[in-house]
Structure formats: C-alpha cells, structure tokens
Amino acid sequence: DIQMTQSPSSLSASVGDRVTITCRASQSISSYLNWYQQKPGKAPKLLIYAASSLQSGVPSRFSGSGSGTDFTLTISSLQPEDFATYYCQQSYSTPPGAFGQGTKLEIK
Amino acid sequence: EVQLVESGGGLVKPGGSLRLSCAASGFTFSSYSMNWVRQAPGKGLEWVSSISSSSSYIYYADSVKGRFTISRDNAKNSLYLQMNSLRAEDTAVYYCARVYKWSRYDAFDIWGQGTMVTVSS
Fold it and tell me: How far apart are the C-alpha atoms of A69 and B113, rounded to whole Å?
C-alpha cells in the first residue's frame, strides 16, 4: 500500500506569510496527488487535484507542485481564513484513498 | 445545489450494528463513484470504502473488511454503509464523498457534513 507522509505536522505562521507544506509518497505516484483543507467541525474541502490544478472557486494564493514522490502545497500570502488543517491524498492506486496525517496551520 | 447529507449515526455498543445513509441531490448520482471516509476524534482522515457508479467495483480498507458493507441505490440517489461487529476504534465522524474525474485524475470534490458514530458500552 502507498503511504503518504506530510511535514511538518504543525506550523505557526502570521497573516501575510508564505507557507509551504510537504507531502511525500512511499512510491512514485506521478501527479496523482490531491490537497484538502479542513476547518474544525467542518468537512474537508478540495483545494488542488492532479498535484497542481486549482479546484474551481479556490483562491489563487493556493498552489501545488511536484511529481513522483515529493509534493508541496504553497500559500503565497496567508489570510485569516487559511488557518486550518491540510491533508494530501494519493489518487494513483484504485481506489483513491490514502491520506497524509495532516498539517495543522496555526496563527503565530 | 450539489449536496450530500449523511444520517444514521449514533451511540452503539461494541459488537453492535449501525447503517449509515448518504442522500445525494443536485447532480446525477448514478454517474459517480462514491466513498466513505472517517475521522476519529482529534485524528486525521481515513478512507473506509469505495463503490463505483454501477456498484461493479467495491473496495474496503483492511480495518473494516469483513465487517462493513457499502452499497448504493441509484434510483433513490442514496449511498449506504452497513457497519457490523462495531469496535471502539470505529468511533468517528463518517463522511460520504463524491469522486470527480478530470481525464486521468480524480479527487473527492463534494463531501457531506458528516455523521458521528460512537461505539461504547
């Protein structure tokens, strides 16, 4: 089974900061990587699919990159509403499944 | 409005059973694969089960295989999860999620609000 590992597990940052979250797959998954945002008490929300494609309605300050085993989610200028937990997910295998353990982004 | 609404959660004793439902609206339910994803209190997301649009392909996480059964009724625009032999470690919020495909790629683009399942004596 493909394992997904995110780093860091938590991160403190300030409004306006540029933030990068990393996700590593245990084997090559090409560009089959999704990113989700989850706020407390809410369902996850799809941000990025296919490693770098922005889901409709998601602000352009969010971007994704990478292929193979190493991927990044970047928020170019943090906004107050961006403080949340972020998860990566591989969609290489059938069915798509394995999520990373999550990265909690907190206000500094 | 595209929407998924889960129901059926609650408190159940270890060894008991529960059936979750997910009602879909605002899209052609029969065209999409669907999934169940759960989240234990304070923990991350765990994929549970997947079913293709026509129920031809069904998959389970090892942690629930043999105990949980996913099904769907396209005529009723509904997804189900029958959970038997429940354990304390099955305690979680259970989400249903739609799979959207872009060419070769897919992701869970629509999620329900979740339903809480608590397994405790």
Answer: 31
Q: Are B111 and B105 in contact (CB under 8 A)?
A: no
Determine how many CB atoms are found less than 10 A away from the CB of residue A106: 11
Distance, in Å, from the CA atom of A30 to the CA atom of A64, rounded to the nearest integer, reads 14
Q: Of A34, A43, A50, which is closest to B95 when you measure between CB atoms?
A: A43
Cross-strand partners of B37: B47, B95
Q: Is B108 on the interface with A (CB under 8 A)?
A: yes
- In tens, the pLDDT along B41-71 reads 999 999 999 999 999 999 999 999 999 999 9
Find, in chain A, the residue whose alpha carbon is nearest to that of B62.
Answer: A1
Buried b (16+ CB within 10 A) or exposed e, B32-52: bbbbbbbbeeeebbbbbbbbb
CB of B5 within 8 Å of a chain A CB? The answer is no
Among candidate residues B113, B29, B81, the one with its CA nearest the CA of residue A42: B113
DSSP secondary structure code for residue B15 in this structure: T
Q: Across residues B25-38, what is the average pLDDT?
A: 98
The reply to whether B106 touches chain A by the CB within 8 Å rule is: yes
How far apart, in whole angstroms, are the C-alpha atoms of residue B91 and residue B93? Answer: 7
Calpha distance B111→B52 (Å, rounded): 16
B3-7 and B18-25 strand pairing: antiparallel
From residue B38, alpha-carbon distances to B42, B49, B54 in Å are 12, 10, 23
